[in-house]
Amino acid sequence: MRSGEIGNTWLRIAPALTLLAFMGPVLAGLTGTLLPAFGYLPGLGGTSLSIAFWGDFGDYPGVGSAVWRSFWTGMLATVLSLAIVVIFAASWRGQRVFVWLHRGLAPILSVPHSAVALGLLFLLAPSGWIMRLVSPWATGFERPPDLALAPDPYGLVFVLGLVVKEIPFLLLMMLSGLNQIPERQSVTLSRSLGYSAMIGWIKIVLPQLYPVMRLPIYAVLAYSVSVVDMAVVLLPATSPTLGLLVMRWFNDPDLTYQFLAAVGATVQLGLVVGAIVIWWGAERVVAAFARPWLSAGGRGKLSRVLALPGLGLATLAWGLGAASVAGMIIWSFAHRWRFPDALPRAYSLGNWVNKTDGLLDPALVTLVTGGVAACIALFLVVSCLENEQRNRLNPGRHLLWLLYLPLLIPQVAFLFGAQALLVAFRLDGSWMAIIWAHLLFVLPYLFLSLSDPYRRLDPRYRVTALSLGQSQSRVFWTITLPLLLRPILIALAVGFAVSVGQYLPTIFAGGGRFATLTTEAVTLAGNGDRRLIGLYVFAQSFLPFLGFGIAALWPLWRFRNRRGMRGLV
Amino acid sequence: MTRLTYSTRRPSRTVLSRSRVVADAQTEATNRLVWALTLVVAMAVFLGGLTFFAGPGRAQSDEAAWQSILKRADGQEVFWNAWGGSDTYNSYIAWVGDRVKEEYGVTLTHVKLSDTADAVRRVLAERTAGRVTDGTIDLIWINGENFKTMKDNALLYGPFVERLPNFSLVDQQEKPTTVLDFTVPTDGLESPWGMAQMVVVYDSATLAEPPRSMKALLAHAKANPGRVTYPAPPDFTGSTFLKQALYELTDAPGVLLQPAGDNFDDVTAPLWAYLDELSPHLWRDGADYPKTGTAQRQLVDDGAVDLHFSFNVGEAASAISEGLLPETARSYVFEGGSIGNTHFVAIPFNASHAEGAMVVANFLLSPEAQARKTDPRYWGEPTVLSMGLLTEEQQQLFSSVPSSPATLTPAELGVTLPEPHPSWMTRIEETWLTRYGS
């Protein structure tokens, strides 16, 4: 009885507490970035406010084009990813190929951005795998041609890398969104009115689906506009994005550049906000123009034209992602693999035998950080959702927005200030700091992944159990949790994968004392030893993949004698 | 006695720096300068006499002081922040960790940095937050601009170098860069660790006669478009290439040792003229550059470009043994000398385990560690020690290191050009970015 009360009290304060653990540090971090942008950083002698550094920012060579490049590459990547996902889903939803490709794309979710970037670079560079496969017999090249294929001067390979990585994410979010709207009824209705499946989907399902997908799309947009680890690999040295410039200033030995870095981080924040506002405006414009078309009643012949490109582009994205990872894994077994050999000339297990020693510690740190962060996030998310259910609260969109803040604000913009905060409280370099920093990014994704199945769970199970005289907590433990086992495990796997991929938060909060697989991989990427990078790409992708594997298999085993449970959710 | 020695040594430093200020300002009357100089000379004579009389006693107390450092270091965990981008170097550092553990009971943790400035910033953040003890960094692998920044901002512990017994073996005469880091006096705040010199690496199977001067390089690029490049500054290999070019092209290389001033445009004009001529013939027509020195090594191995630059004299040999370059890779230096410098280790002002850090710094200067560092299998760069100061047994450690056809002998390495004052690098990088970087 008493424990039940404690449980209820906890549930009531859980949402507030979750937000506090979130908003406090993020806002403090933002302040710690904004103040130096206006000249205030006592450690470096900046004790008065001034806008002098904004002038320096404007004068820095190439800053204008870098801002513009950040903007348009991020916008283009988001538009392309969304378009491919929408066209693909509209034309192939409900067919077997959709399920196949969706299953094929899911593992790419577990490959960190930096790993995809490194793999893609090796695939597409003039000395890369594709060129090796066709040289010299088809091209006549004995040495790599001096062509700007990857990185290319326009940043298109960079956009491609983002698209490859964002398509699986948007697809996952779309499937989750489709569960929240009456998709089947809508399609059936439109079919009965004589619309083709695809036109019906676009005209009736998509307008209902888009609002549900809006937040994930904004997150993709914000990420694409400010990403650093992909840009550093896939853009030419002479065409940086704003994010890269901020990192360059931040890393400059001359500490006065810290002020410039703070200004840059502030501009980056403005750029993300601006991009979202423009996107939001574009939504309005598209909606205004589409409305007449939607309601005009045209049955259209669009489906035939778009079905094949939709499938082709989605398959291409999958193929590029898979080949990127495959190439790097082959590298990890290579000893010598020079241009134009299609495969390594000499193989060696030396890499695996000698270097795995160095892998164990980072792998352990990765495992513990990701595991603990995902479990804490799960605890908080389930508490919030259960509170919603018990007290029959309407799922508030505003709450979700706040949770999304760490995904919408560029990482450098608040991690810079958050580090100072951690140092002040002597928390940097502690497990607590690193897990908390990861939690900021793990929690939103976990919430995103779990909230929909949780809210959609048929309320009749709960009501029936309650009417049979069971307590709230017993209903939770014996009915809700087992029914939601699969989505919970998937949410945990998503949270874990997000944690594995974190680079900047680990660096800022870890005080350099925590080396994860990702920080090691990024450090070693500077060495340019593709064999070693291959090993780390494999290790980086393997752990999250394992997580998804467990999430898929455990429920099958657990409910091996419960046929009805296997199909659920 | 010790106390007396130390307390009398400090004022001389103050006077020295004051006299420097006076001289720099050039507005004070010359008699004040004369006064200051007289004071310095008097102090030096006094100190010399003191050292002479206190000689044996001081040596003894130094020994006792070092023993107490060893005692306190035993059991400490030293967090060494060092660039972690090279697997070879990481293995060497791991070996150091094993050795100091068994020898002195010091646990060494290598904090792998992707950029040394990360560590500088962290120390600054700690000071900003008021953490003047219990810092998270005990030792930093450092030189040049980062050292100057830490020194100028008083972020370093020490002077401690004189306390290291092995420092007496360092070749300060022949290798002045062991105490002058990019022309900045180290003042005992950082302990030398290794000698670096810029070498050029190429594949002798595809390039018979590599270009041995900047002019020859230009001619080579014109004859072989797209086969020459250099890393984009501010990558330090790229910046060093520019400084190397400046040395060869400018009429007055001597001014490079002074801070850059109004003369910057005049002095660097030949460099920009050279680069303007070179750029159209570079790899990717100069529209892109390798991001790091090692990225350019990858291009050499791929056969995309003809040569790359390295600050590690043993680069070619160790890359061959790692399977990162073909067996036919060879190295050479430009005629007229190439830029060389020394890299160091320093201790932050708020280090938690300064004693342990000093023990590690001292071990890095030991003949055992230095000899291993000259071995291309483990690192492959010249030692900071003077052979003349070593015992025969210690010299044996060095002579038994296998040589490689890909590595140049000290004689072949030729003249070392000193690093210009850091201010040149900063302004060259800025100008390069404006002209070619965006």
Defining traits:
heterodimer, A: mainly alpha, B: 438 residues, alpha/beta, 15 helices, globular, disordered N terminus
* Unreliably modeled segments of chain A: none
The major β-sheet of chain A equals:
2 strands, antiparallel
Task: Kindly state the number of beta strands of chain A.
Answer: 2
Strand order of the largest sheet of chain A: 1-2
- Mean pLDDT of chain B, nearest integer? 86
Strand-residue fraction of chain A? under 5%
Largest sheet of chain B: 6 strands, mixed
Query: What integer is the average pLDDT of chain A?
Result: 86
Low-confidence segments of chain B? 1-25, 48-57
Number of discrete helical segments of chain A = 24
Largest interface, Cβ cutoff 8 Å: A-B, 63 and 71 residues
Task: Let me know the number of strands of chain B.
Answer: 11
Number of helices of chain B: 15
Distance between the first and last residues' Cα of chain B? 61 Å
> What oligomeric state is this?
heterodimer
Question: Could you describe the 3D structure shown?
Answer:
The complex is a heterodimer of chains A (569) and B (438). Chain A is mainly alpha-helical. Chain A has helices spanning 2-37, 52-59, 63-92, 96-109, 113-124, 129-134, 156-178, 183-192, 197-226, 229-234, 242-250, 257-295, 302-332, 350-390, 397-408, 411-424, 431-456, 459-467, 472-483, 485-501, 504-510, 517-525, 530-558, 563-566; strands at residues 334-336, 346-347. Chain A has 24 helices and two strands. Chain A has a two-stranded antiparallel sheet with strand order 1-2. Chain B has 438 residues and is of the alpha/beta class. Helix content of chain B is 48%, strand content 13%. Chain B is built from 15 helices and eleven strands. Chain B has helices at residues 2-25, 30-73, 87-104, 116-128, 144-152, 214-223, 236-249, 264-278, 293-302, 315-322, 354-364, 367-374, 392-399, 410-413, 422-436, and strands at residues 77-83, 107-113, 139-142, 180-181, 184-185, 190-197, 199-203, 307-310, 329-332, 338-346, 416-418. In chain B, strand 1 (77-83), helix 3 (87-104) and strand 2 (107-113) form a beta-alpha-beta unit. In chain B, helix 1 (2-25) packs across helix 2, helix 2 packs across helix 11 (354-364) and helix 7 (236-249) crosses helix 8 (264-278).
